[in-house]
Amino acid sequence: MIGYRFTKFVPQPSKGGSTYDKLLEIFLQLLVITGGDVSEALNWLTNLDKEYDITEEGYGIGDFVDQLKGDGYLTDENPEGKFEVTAKTDQKIRKDALEEIFGKLKKGGKGSHRTFYSGQGDEKSTDMREYRFGDTLDQISMTESIKNAQVNHGLDGFMMTENDLEIMETEYKTQTSTVLMIDISHSMILYGEDRITPAKKVAMALSELIITKYKKDTLDIIVFGNDAWQIKIKELPYLQVGPYHTNTVAGLELAMDLLRRRKNPNKQIFMITDGKPTCLKEGIRYYKNSFGLDSKILNKTLNLAAQCRRLDIPVTTFMIASDPYLKEFVKEFTEVNNGNAYYSSLKGLGNLIFEDYKKNRRKKY
Asked: Computed over its alpha carbons, how large is the radius of gyration of the chain?
């Protein structure tokens, strides 16, 4: 018989991990969604178990909570006796976000921003050359040098001279300082669409990537609503949107201030937002206008974009909305700054940021 016969594909049941592992994965996702409220996350988990029978006979949610405490993910050692997450939980959430968004990445050495220049850098290459005055002992390839000595002088009366030494070339690696700006205005959860959770996951994945793979790089994270303020990496999973407008100016000013303190020659700003700037702070009062693009707010924002360009700080905007007038704002902002802009669905946000992070590495010393 010539040809193929097609039938309905029925996937095999997954041979996943234990009930504990499955519950842990769901619980960590719920922690991110609930902003770190352990009680609320456990309530949701209990309701999910009631509806979908996640647990098995002889192992309930109470056993799961006890195991979380035993494994160091939860603690109730505080005056109120309430459950709190630990540093181990924070790290686990970041690692899971990195795995989910960027896939499996091998842990690298100190920094991995390679250049095409060789010299007294800190990354060994595969290129070899003869010894030169000033080369250090750790640059000598002992295997190749001993082989040269045997070839040049024979095995009897073994000796090694300067001419036998072979040096393993090293390469410079650039260092990059990044500020990640996250919009926490009310529109990030408007109309029933959760935009803040994907933004948090991307931020967690990027921070874990830099911590584990690009150790010499720096990452500062700021959030902006009516005002802008810096947050710690451990606070990322538990960010929540507030009843705020979008003060992009305050975010950019703080980002530039943070980058001024960094000694790295390569600096960049990543901005995750879903809307136009709608707020300015003038002294102690806020100037707000949510209707269209206010020229007063827009001009101040564009002035800062130009200032970033003069300081050689590109701003990459990740716009998770597609309204035409928003695109016009982003287009003008990007042209003034000479940066980059992406219009992304929530699903594709992580890949875009990762690719742009690699692409933005410029060679300066």
From this structure: 27
DSSP letter for 139, please.
Answer: G
Element (H, E) at 142: helix 142-153
Which of 12, 95, 91, 22 lies closest to 54, judged by CA?
22
* Distance of alpha carbon 320 from alpha carbon 349, whole angstroms: 8
Mean pLDDT of the chain: 83
349-360: average pLDDT:
67
Compute the distance between CA of residue 221 and CA of residue 230 in angstroms, rounded to an integer: 6
CB-facing half-sphere around the CA of 23: CA atoms within 13 A: 27
Q: Which pLDDT band, with edges at 50, 70 and 90, does 193 fall under?
A: confident
Say if residue 171's pLDDT is above 90: no
| Dist. CA 336–CA 314, nearest whole Å | 10
| Cβ-Cβ contacts under 8 Å for 54 (sequence gap 6 or more) | 19, 22, 23, 26, 45, 48
> Which pair of tokens denotes residue 13?
């049941």
Phi-psi region of 78 (alpha: psi -120 to 50; beta: other; left: phi over 0): beta
Q: What is the pTM of this model?
A: 0.72
CB atoms within 10 A of CB 262: 17
Is the pLDDT score of 142 beyond 50?
yes
CA distance 310 to 277: 22
- Residue 20, pLDDT > 50, answer yes
- pLDDT-based confidence at 294, cuts 50/70/90? very high
Handedness of CA 206, 212, 214, 217 (dihedral sign): positive
